Amino acid sequence: MSERLLDILLSSFPKLLLACLRATIPLTVIIFAVSLVLGFLLALVQIMDIKGLKRFARIYIWIFRGTPLLVQLYIIFFGLPSIGITLDAFPAAVIAFSLNNAAYNSETIRSAILSVPQGQTEAGYMVGLNYRQIMMRIVLPQAARVAFPTLSNSVISLTKDTSLVASITVVELFKTAQRIASVYFEPFALYCEAALIYLLLNTLLTFLQSYLEKKLVWKPVERTKHFTKAA
Amino acid sequence: MLEVKNLHKKFGSVEILKGIHFHINKGEVVAVLGSSGSGKTTLLRCLSFLEKADHGEIIFDDFHKDITQIRPKEIRQLRMKMGFVFQNYNLFRNKTAFQNVMEGLRIAQKVPEPQAKEIAVNTLKKVGMLERSDYYPDQLSGGQQQRVAIARAIALSPKVILFDEPTSALDPELTGEVLDVMKMLAREGTTMVVVTHEMGFAQEVANRIIFMDGGRIAADQPSKEFFTSPQDENIKRFLRRTLADYDYTI
């Protein structure tokens, strides 16, 4: 490797990392949080069979899963101004991604809730719990465990998909790489460097996932606090 | 104490219950027998409102109402007086045996923590599951799970316990431990409705047999009479078939 190229890579690394910390990670965190809440609500109105809202949720999911994310991004950022709604690039990105991810997350959450056997709910009713208590204490904790791997998957996808927002002028990791690449005419090196940073970020997320997955498993037997207390 | 009149239930176009009159008195153990599809389980599920009946009346002590007009709040109050033991246990999978028993006490009945603990410990001891208090359902055998499920039901001191084929999902060698617990409850005077295929249990423990056939009650007799002088051909055939199995397993 030439010394010039090495210099370019070394000097751009902190810039790329900074862009990652300033834009890519905040985008991912905000979008994931918003889309999780939205997705949960969309799942819940379907599970609870709330008439009008259930229909709305199905149509919503149909549209947002059925059209490309990039197109949705362009409609919100470039399209909406023509009907008088102008958004900055960052909020436009957050809105487009959140709406899109919510559609996917809602399906993950809905199927996780449906995977909890009906008998769990029936047993809840027969010990005198009401619907809300059954949901909060029995069904959702079990569903969380089922949904977790799939949701982790979608976070990992999300970190990478945020590179799309480069196309609507948000200066995140990939946009920064593009800029540096065009200054030095070194696209191959810079895009590989950007890829490496995405890989590092997702390696961390994968570790976090397996750590949290272990936490989420119902704990193995701790012998035997109630027994000793009773004896 | 608990009574239903003229109970009807259809699933789609299939009529499962065709006008059931059923009652149970305090302290009775009633076994509900009949071949598969005769409506036994549906009867139990309608009694506990897990299925919505199409027609009928329910009477529980001094409560008397058209079963289709019943309100969610009334359903909860009636369920508080009933225990239910499921065929496949349905222990809460995210909770330990101990927490399973505590759940209804603490959350539904709002029993203070120390008393609830005492009740939970006592009932688990009663079914011989105290040593396994801190195990999750996954870590218990079927028979152990069902004993915890029985503890969960009796901890709430229901007036009647409904058993829906409590041993049908168990390996044959595990049915004994569950039946022993049920016999103990019967001896203590617990009011029980038991849908079962265990002819031995029905013969030994039940005071009264209800025989269901094609969505109707074909016989409602004291246990001894039912087995010694069966009323009609269907019952005779059923007894020949099931008692033959029963002899065979001995």
Question: What's this, in brief?
Answer:
By secondary structure, chain A is mostly helical. Chain A contains 9 helices and no strands. Chain B is globular.
End-to-end separation of chain B in angstroms reads 36 Å
What is the third-level CATH name, the topology of chain A?
MetI-like fold
Order of helix and strand elements from N to C terminus of chain B: EEEHEEHEHHHEHEHEEHH
Taking the alpha carbons of the first and last residues of chain A, their distance comes to 72 Å
How much strand of chain B? 15-25%
Count of DSSP-assigned helices of chain B: 9
Which regions of chain B contain 5 or more consecutive residues with pLDDT less than 50? Answer: none
At the fourth CATH level, what is the homologous superfamily of the largest domain in chain B?
P-loop containing nucleotide triphosphate hydrolases
CATH third-tier fold name of the largest domain in chain B: Rossmann fold
Question: How many helical stretches of chain A?
Answer: 9
What is the name of the CATH superfamily of chain A? MetI-like
